[in-house]
């Protein structure tokens, strides 16, 4: 009889299995585990002791062999001293016989003249320590080309002028297990001998530093071993650091005795199993029949046959299982039919089928999923929310009934609550708008409201004669069908959702940048045609980044949503409020008859918006305050295009921030002048690059302990034809905004490298020169290759070049920046974190950066020694750099008092006007390079 072991899932089967465990397996397994554990533990201890004794025996044997070799070469040395020099050659064979365990013997005098007594010529090791007369040393030489194994040599000093050198024969033959691994390690962990290709276990190197011998388990990819090691002390007699003998014996060979227990355990378990199976056959036969029925039913389910029920009358858990199985099959049948209906509705939506086709799908297929008696579909008119069209299908009638009725405000309010309503018609009546259903035979009714954006758009209802039929179906499945059907009837909803996704912000539900641009274009077109004015207000939250950093982005998003809601409440229908990104919002006011009214309306709206921020925002029972800065631009007074309108409003907002925040500013003529000057300066920057108006100045870095030059920083200057010499603060920010920073950065690197080469050609001994790299330059993925090309063309040594990088460069694109820095490091250049402490100063990032130096920013130098906080920060930076193995340079030193204090704090490398202002190349060479001296 075939037995299906799936019976373990029932209570009866588990009871039989428990009998099996109690009667046979538990005592046998317990006894076997106990016995195996005891034997394994004892064998493990015995095995470790065996390995410990074996490696000790080998070690003692090896040291005995070495001392025996030392005795042989000492005896030979005494014989050589006793013979006249002319007899060495004639009696070399007799002399070498005194040291039979040496394969080569060579006599060497102080002129390094060698006399080979036996074998090949040997030479005195270069790293051999000094020997006294009569002393012997041992040395290990790597194998010659084509050879295998290290060579062991002994050097014996005969007298002040002569050495006797001997290479020993094979001394590595020991009585060890055939599968054992064997290593001999010499000074500096040099491998002297091994019988295997496997590496020495890593634990040996750390353990032998703590104790002279030990045993530990070790596992390779193929096998497990017990490893023992024993240290040989050779320093006193053979003038060598300790050797270590390492022996690894396989655990399998040692613990094989434990296998004998299995030969007894397995037959015992088998006997117990067969005995128990014999006793439980009757019970097994009782459970197989219902299980077989369930198995066949499962196969029918797999073929989507849900109509044939399982009939089990065993009056136990199997009967309960059969009933549950039938319930599951019925539920699956309904779910498959529901999914089929949903699929057909989706297809009808995609193919734009008409309403009649949708009705046919619902009325033809829904009856297969739900055994209703009456089905009603009601569509609420979009143009008149008080009218509803009803389509009614009665199972007892052949034709579909259509009716139209009215909805009261109370009816709409109840539908708007979006709750399914089950109505017992024996106790309660139907709503008035469903009065046409009263003549249909039903006792229970369930109503499903369908809402769109919180507004009722349709209803679905089903009537039943029997309450049991009502309980059979899943209301969630029906709601999915009805909602999908309502979408099919109001296909415009899908189009509206797509439009909202493209034109509205998901977080605040405000119009986004795309919708703002469309609205601006429309407003500007009307302004041109009708000679009206438009106002664009650019609002940015003050210090919103602090909220994000301290509370997290999720709280920050909720905060933005509250801000948007409050501003929308303040504006009402006056203007278009949009979120264009981050914490930036815009308000567009259009169709204003005059510029005076436009300015007045803008002021009123700006004051209302700023006043809206006076009240705190409540988040998770905590109050948070915020302020905002607003920039205002008016079209066509201030600009001619929508891009300029947005740009000038943005610029005005930054002016409001610069003047103290929590305020608003109009775009003014002064700001316009600033824009014009900015554009002029931008054009002059282009000309400056073409006409080579940029100069490189050098500010020295000084070791304040001895007032010597340790380096310099290359600083760019602009020799403007009309404005004179300009500092980088006046033009570098503009260069970064306009992407000219790439060309300027290349120019600084190229000119600095060429200047270094010129100084070298003039005979100066130059220090490392630091070059600043802007954060924007790291967006060039080939930056390191460009720098390497410039350095190669100039011919300057990369070690003379140091690159200073600000912390912001690391944060903006950390992974790519680290790749470039590592490439510069591999090139040979030094790296410095510039302005350390003024940015993020993340320890996580800092540990991953390949930098050599931290540069303390001048803001921490300013105010010392009076400012104790700055002193504490400097100490912390110095300690951090020391722990990370970095140097520290302090910049911005202006007084002797500051220099002396920093020197006391351990910051001896300094830079600043106290030592020197930035100098031209000629001044720098004249004042500093000559002081170092010429080649």
Automatic annotation (TrEMBL):
It holds the Pfam family GGDEF. The keyword Transmembrane helix applies. Residues 285-337 form the HAMP domain. SUPFAM superfamilies: EAL domain-like, HAMP domain-like, Nucleotide cyclase. The chain crosses the membrane at residues 12-34, 261-279. InterPro entries: Biofilm_reg_signaling, EAL_dom, EAL_sf, GAF-like_dom_sf, GGDEF_dom, HAMP_dom, Nucleotide_cyclase, Rev_trsase/Diguanyl_cyclase. One of its GO terms (molecular function) is catalytic activity. Residues 678-932 form the EAL domain. One of its GO terms (cellular component) is membrane. One of its GO terms (biological process) is signal transduction. Keywords: Membrane, Transmembrane, Transmembrane helix. Residues 532-669 form the GGDEF domain. It comes from the Bacteria. NCBIfam families: GGDEF. This is Uncharacterized protein. It comes from Legionella impletisoli.
């Amino acid at each position: 009889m075939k037995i299906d072991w799936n019976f373990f899932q029932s209570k009866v089967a588990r009871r039989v299995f428990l009998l099996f465990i109690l009667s046979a397996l538990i005592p046998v397994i317990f006894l076997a585990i106990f016995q195996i554990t005891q034997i394994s533990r004892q064998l493990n201890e015995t095995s470790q002791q065996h390995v410990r004794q074996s490696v000790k025996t080998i070690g003692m044997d090896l040291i005995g062999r070495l001392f025996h070799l030392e005795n042989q070469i000492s005896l030979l040395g005494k014989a050589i001293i006793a013979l006249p020099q002319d007899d060495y050659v004639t009696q070399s064979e007799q002399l070498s016989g005194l040291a039979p365990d040496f394969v080569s013997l060579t006599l060497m005098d102080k002129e390094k003249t060698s006399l080979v007594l036996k074998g090949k010529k040997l030479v005195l090791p270069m790293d051999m320590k000094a020997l006294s007369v009569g002393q012997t040393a041992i040395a290990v030489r790597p194998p010659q080309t084509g050879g295998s194994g290290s060579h062991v040599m002994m050097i014996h000093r005969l007298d002040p002028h002569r050495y006797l050198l001997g290479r020993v024969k094979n001394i590595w033959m020991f009585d060890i297990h055939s599968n054992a691994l064997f290593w001999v390690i010499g000074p500096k962990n040099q491998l002297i001998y091994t019988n295997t290709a496997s590496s020495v276990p890593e634990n040996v190197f750390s353990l032998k530093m703590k104790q002279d011998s030990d045993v530990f388990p070790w596992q390779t990819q193929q096998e497990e071993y017990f490893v023992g090691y024993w240290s040989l002390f050779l320093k006193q007699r053979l003038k060598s650091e300790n050797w270590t003998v390492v022996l690894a014996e396989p655990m399998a060979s040692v613990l094989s005795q434990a296998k004998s227990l299995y030969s007894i355990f397995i037959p015992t378990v088998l006997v117990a199993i067969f005995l128990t199976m014999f006793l439980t056959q009757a019970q097994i036969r009782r459970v197989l029949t219902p299980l077989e029925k369930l198995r066949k039913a499962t196969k029918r389910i797999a073929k989507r046959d849900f109509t044939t029920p399982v009939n089990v009358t065993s009056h136990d858990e199997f009967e309960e299982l059969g009933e549950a199985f039938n319930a599951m099959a019925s539920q699956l049948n309904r779910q498959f039919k529901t999914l089929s209906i949903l699929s057909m509705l989706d297809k009808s939506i995609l193919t734009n089928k008409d309403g009649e086709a949708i009705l046919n799908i619902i009325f033809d297929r829904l009856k297969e999923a739900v055994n209703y008696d009456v089905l009603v579909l009601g569509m609420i008119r979009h143009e008149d929310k008080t009218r509803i069209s009803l389509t009614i299908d009665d199972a007892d009638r052949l034709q579909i009934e259509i009716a139209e009725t009215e909805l009261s405000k109370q009816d709409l309010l109840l539908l708007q609550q979006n709750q399914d309503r089950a109505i017992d018609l024996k106790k309660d009546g139907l709503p008035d708008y469903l009065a046409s259903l009263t003549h249909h035979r039903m006792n229970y009714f369930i109503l499903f409201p369908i809402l769109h954006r919180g507004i009722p758009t349709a209803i679905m209802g089903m009537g039943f004669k029997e309450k049991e039929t009502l309980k059979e179906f899943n209301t969630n499945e029906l709601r999915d069908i009805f909602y999908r059907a309502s979408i099919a009837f109001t296909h415009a909803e899908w189009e509206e959702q797509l439009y909202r996704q493209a034109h509205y912000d998901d977080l605040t539900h405000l119009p986004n940048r795309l919708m703002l641009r469309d609205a601006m274009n429309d407003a500007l077109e009307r302004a041109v045609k009708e000679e009206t004015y438009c106002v664009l207000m650019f609002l940015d939250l003050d210090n919103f980044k602090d909220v994000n950093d301290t509370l997290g982005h999720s709280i920050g998003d909720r905060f933005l949503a509250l801000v948007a809601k409050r501003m929308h409440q303040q504006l009402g229908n006056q203007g278009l409020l949009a979120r264009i990104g981050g914490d930036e919002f815009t308000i567009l006011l259009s169709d204003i008859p005059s510029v005076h009214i436009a300015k007045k309306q803008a002021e009123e709206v700006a004051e209302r918006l700023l006043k809206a921020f006076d009240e705190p925002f409540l988040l998770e029972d905590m109050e948070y305050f915020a302020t905002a800065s607003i920039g205002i631009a008016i079209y066509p007074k201030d600009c001619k295009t929508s891009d300029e309108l947005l740009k000038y409003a943005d610029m005005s907002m930054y002016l409001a921030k610069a003047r103290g925040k929590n305020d608003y500013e109009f775009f003014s003529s002064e700001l316009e002048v600033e824009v014009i000057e900015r554009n002029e300066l931008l054009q002059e920057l282009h000309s400056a690059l073409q006409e080579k108006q940029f100069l490189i100045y050098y500010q020295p870095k000084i070791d304040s302990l001895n007032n010597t030059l340790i380096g310099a920083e290359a600083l760019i200057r602009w020799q403007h034809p009309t404005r004179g010499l300009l500092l980088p603060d006046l033009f570098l920010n503009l260069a970064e905004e306009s992407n000219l920073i790439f060309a300027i950065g290349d120019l600084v690197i190229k000119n600095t490298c060429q200047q270094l080469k010129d100084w070298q050609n003039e005979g100066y001994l130059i220090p490392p020169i630091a070059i600043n790299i802007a954060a924007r330059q790291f967006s060039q993925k080939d930056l390191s290759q460009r720098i390497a090309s410039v350095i190669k063309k100039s011919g300057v040594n990369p070690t003379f070049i140091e690159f200073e990088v600000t912390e912001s460069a690391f944060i903006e694109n950390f992974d790519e920046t680290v790749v470039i820095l590592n490439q510069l490091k591999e090139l040979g250049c030094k790296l410095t974190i510039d302005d350390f402490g003024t940015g993020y100063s993340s320890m996580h990032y800092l540990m991953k950066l390949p930098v050599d130096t931290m540069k303390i920013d001048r803001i921490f130098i300013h105010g010392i020694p009076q400012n104790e906080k700055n002193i504490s920060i400097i100490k912390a930076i110095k300690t951090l750099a020391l722990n990370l193995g970095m140097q520290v340079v302090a910049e911005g030193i202006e007084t002797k008092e500051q220099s002396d204090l920093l020197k006391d704090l351990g910051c001896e490398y300094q830079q600043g006007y106290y030592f020197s202002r930035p100098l031209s190349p000629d001044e720098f060479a004249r004042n500093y390079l000559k002081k170092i001296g010429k080649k």
